[in-house]
Specification:
Pfam families: HEAT_2, Peptidase_M1, Peptidase_M1_N. Helices cover 39% and strands 23% of the residues. The chain has an 8-stranded mixed sheet with strand order 5-4-8-2-1-11-14-13, with no helix packed on it. It has a 5-stranded mixed sheet with strand order 16-17-18-20-19.
């Protein structure tokens, strides 16, 4: 499962209470019975959003003999329960199906139960999580076909325990079962499920039955069905089918979006030492999907964010990390599964770290390190310091899907890899996967395998990082002995809990760095190093591996040297932001200007975003340099940042730069160029914006909104209205939030009924989508504000507009 990162700000606002811990102990679920095989036959009632199902489930007692079977079955109608064609007595409370078996079955005695049922996902009452925004298991999208702008689709989402919303099962991660599914649908639809499509049968009533067979074992939460009008783009990894299910519009771009998948499977097979263990790899995109993506075995589903046009992909494939994340889950999570949600780290921390591994392999260490830094910052910025990675005490299993299980867990694996060395680390992963394949495991079993491989005791590491909370907070100082030519680095841990850890310290003499690897084993540690020439920079945590906070009293000259010489992204970034505060100093300004030529594109972007061109050191040569970057940098995102910086000058001489940008294939460059051009040739910018296709306008909505608001172009309020809520609440950029708050106010006061309807519909859609964050209540309050603004500002069309708002509000209050 992959987080929707755009929800981070939103979650911070509305779900702090979601993560509250209690003293409730959450153990692995007791195994009374073991699932062996699950066979399903299903068809769908699109109008009622229901599934008609038949199930043959084969089980055996785990150890103790028993004459009762309990299955999870949420919100269903149970029509009959049989064994060998004979009815069985049962009790059903809408959540659990308790079946009286004809006799007591002993350990290893298999039996098969037949159940005829109707699944009613709309009747399910269980909440989602920060990662998975709903938990009804089975989703009908535009099932009546009334929305002409949205296709009809069906898809499932099983994690954590929602597969039991569409078939009775033992819905726990410590169960493993093989499966067969017969899916009957109208002929115009294609289907996707786990395993192999063995057979398709056309039926006399205009339907078709697809038979999917999955002969290996996996957890019930990984069962998947997808139904819709898709084109299937075929690829391969070795002799294994790799397929991309996309809507027709995106078929020409499917390989651009997903085409690295075969290389990912090859890379992950190589580093784990375990060849991809399944018989296919398919990916499908679902409308209105409730998360970022999900690793259903051989049948991954992605949210709509995966859909990108060429003008976006030329900038960056924003789904690539997610594609890697879900692929690696096929080893960590699907092949070897957490035995309990408390040990979710053995699934999600590995999938999170796979993003680093893939980026390092494909694009280099700088890109991977920047990604790791951004992930750890997201962990630090949340309500996470006091949470353990392995948590046996939590309020709800959904609470485990947070920045600790994902982001911090990935950072911990990076530290573990660094401590053990690559050869030992990856050999340990191979042994862990081999030992527990098609089964379950917990963090201790990972530790034991790594200890066996390396001969090292790792209790200290796991106790502080897996079974403890927080991270080191280091206060750093230096003592120089100029007679002996030594420097002593003093490290004091200021947090309550004491950590021990390896640490890299670089001593720079000019541009030359000497790396010292030390081990900190105490709250107060000091290390003395010789030097030949007075050090120009001392960099603690020089490789950026240790998850920590560092406080040290550096002066401007230190930061200038750090920006120039440091090797790790986080240190360069830190230095650049500090130096940028002091650009009245010529050396500081030149350091920022030089950083615009840094080999790593994210440092170039950061320099362009922070350079101050309104000071006495802003020479023509620097502006000329930015012009060259704007037109020629190999990264379009850097070009866009340069154009945005030049746009602040509102200089008519820059018109050729903006004009070239308007011809760019990059939507990022196009959007920034439109804004830049607006301030030097308003008519040209507006004319260009009016000729853009609607799909492009939606992608670059923010720069267009800025232009239309400044222009007071009320004819575009209808377009703006459909984008307001994402800008106000799903962006972490305060300038963007402010821009869309201005748009909200303007539309709310206007007499543009169409714009008011678009804004109201957007509020309703977001209120429903994020209801578990109480955004439905936020939406109602926003619409009440709209009503008040209408009463004050628009007496002419007031009644009509207020009726539109109140009608939308009623939908949200249903």
């Amino acid at each position: 499962m992959k987080f929707q990162k755009t929800l981070t700000f939103f979650i911070t606002l509305f779900t702090v209470a979601l993560f509250a811990q209690t003293s409730t102990y959450r153990a692995e679920r007791d195994k009374i019975h073991d699932l062996i095989h699950t066979k399903l036959k299903v068809d769908f009632n699109f109008k009622e959003k229901q599934l008609n199902g038949e199930e043959w489930v084969t089980l055996k007692p785990h150890f103790y003999k028993t004459d009762k079977l309990t299955l999870d079955a949420k919100g269903m109608i149970i029509h009959k329960v049989l064994m060998n064609n004979s009815p069985l007595n049962y009790n059903y409370d809408g959540n659990e199906l308790i079946i009286n078996l004809p006799r007591a079955y002993k350990r290893n005695e298999e039996f098969t139960i037949y159940i005829k049922y109707t699944a009613r996902p709309e009747k399910v009452k269980q909440k989602g999580s920060a990662a998975i925004t709903s938990a009804k298991g089975l989703y009908f999208i535009n099932s009546t076909g009334l929305d002409k702008n949205k296709p009809t689709q069906i898809w499932t989402q099983g994690e954590t325990e929602a597969s039991s919303c569409w078939f009775p099962t033992i819905d726990a991660p410590n169960q493993k079962t093989s499966q067969e599914i017969y899916i009957t649908v109208p002929k115009k639809y294609v289907t996707l499920s786990n395993g192999k499509l063995e057979k398709q049968t056309n039926n006399a009533n205009g339907t078709r039955t697809d038979y999917w067979n999955f002969i290996q074992k996996h957890a019930p939460y990984l069962f998947f069905m997808g139904v819709g009008e898709y084109e299937i783009i075929k690829d391969t990894y070795k002799n294994i089918p790799v397929e991309y299910y996309v809507e027709k519009k995106y078929a020409p771009y499917a390989r651009d979006i997903f085409g690295n998948t075969p290389e990912m499977l090859a890379f992950f097979s190589k580093i784990t030492g375990i060849e991809y263990p399944w018989n296919k790899y398919a990916q499908i995109v679902g409308r209105d999907y409730v998360s970022g993506a999900m690793e259903n075995t051989t049948a991954v589903i992605h949210g709509e964010k995966a859909y990108q046009m060429p003008g976006q992909l030329i900038d960056e494939n924003v789904q690539e990390n997610t594609i890697a994340h879900e692929a690696f889950h096929h080893w960590f999570g699907d092949l070897v599964t957490t035995e309990s949600w408390s040990n979710l780290t053995v699934n999600e921390s590995f999938a999170n770290y796979s993003e680093y591994l893939w980026l390092e392999h494909k694009y280099g260490k700088d890109v991977a390190d920047a990604h790791l830094f951004e992930d750890t910052q997201a962990y630090k910025n949340g309500q996470n310091y006091d949470k353990h990675l392995v948590r046996f005490n939590y309020q709800d299993k959904e609470d485990m899907f947070d920045a600790v299980s994902y982001n911090k867990g990935g950072a911990i694996l990076h530290m573990l890899r660094n401590y053990l060395g690559d050869e030992a680390f990856f050999e340990g992963l191979k042994q862990y996967l081999t030992k527990h394949k098609y089964g379950t495991a917990e963090a201790h079993q990972l530790r034991l395998v790594l200890e066996e491989v390396t001969g090292k005791d790792l209790n200290w590491f796991f106790n502080q990082w897996y079974f403890g909370s927080g991270h080191p907070k280091l206060d750093i100082s230096y003592d120089y002995n100029t007679l002996r030519k030594t420097v002593t680095v003093n490290i004091i841990q200021t947090q309550a809990k004491e950590f021990k850890f390896p640490l890299a310290i670089d001593i720079f003499e000019g541009s030359k760095a000497t790396r010292h690897n030390v081990f900190v084993n105490g709250k107060d540690a000091s290390f003395t190093f010789p030097y030949v020439k007075q050090p120009s920079l001392i960099q603690v945590n020089a490789d950026g591996v240790l998850l920590c906070d560092v406080h040290e009293n550096k002066v401007l000259s230190d930061y200038i040297n750090q920006l120039k010489y440091a090797k790790n992204y986080q240190h360069q970034r830190e230095a650049l932001l500090e130096v940028a505060k002091n650009q009245d100093d010529k050396k500081a300004f030149n350091a920022i200007a030089n950083a615009m030529s840094d080999p790593f594109y994210k440092i170039r972007i950061l320099a362009l975003e922070n350079i101050n061109l309104i000071n006495k050191y802003s020479k023509k040569r620097v502006i000329d340099k930015i012009k060259q970057i704007a037109m020629n940098d190999p990264k379009t995102l850097v070009q866009a940042a340069a154009i945005e910086t030049l746009g602040k000058l509102t200089d008519p001489e820059l018109k050729p730069v903006f004009d070239k940008g308007l011809q760019s294939k990059s939507y990022s460059v196009l959007g920034k160029s439109l804004v830049g051009m607006y301030y030097v040739d308003k008519d040209l910018a507006i004319k260009k914006s009016k000729t853009l296709p609607l799909e492009v306008k939606k992608i670059i909505a923010t720069p267009l909104t800025r232009i239309y608001l400044e222009e007071n172009d009320d004819s575009e309020l209808t377009f703006i209205g459909g984008n307001v809520m994402s800008g106000m609440f799903l962006s972490q950029n305060k300038k963007i939030q402010s821009l869309y708050k201005k748009a909200f106010d303007k539309i709310s006061k206007s007499n543009n009924t169409e714009a008011i309807k678009n804004l109201s519909d957007d509020i309703v859609a977001k209120g429903i989508q994020y209801k578990q964050y109480n955004f439905d209540k936020v939406g109602v309050n926003l619409m009440r504000q709209m009503v008040q603004m209408q009463k004050k500002a628009n007496p002419i069309n007031k009644n009509k507009n207020i009726e539109v708002i109140k009608t939308a509000m009623a939908r949200l209050l249903e």
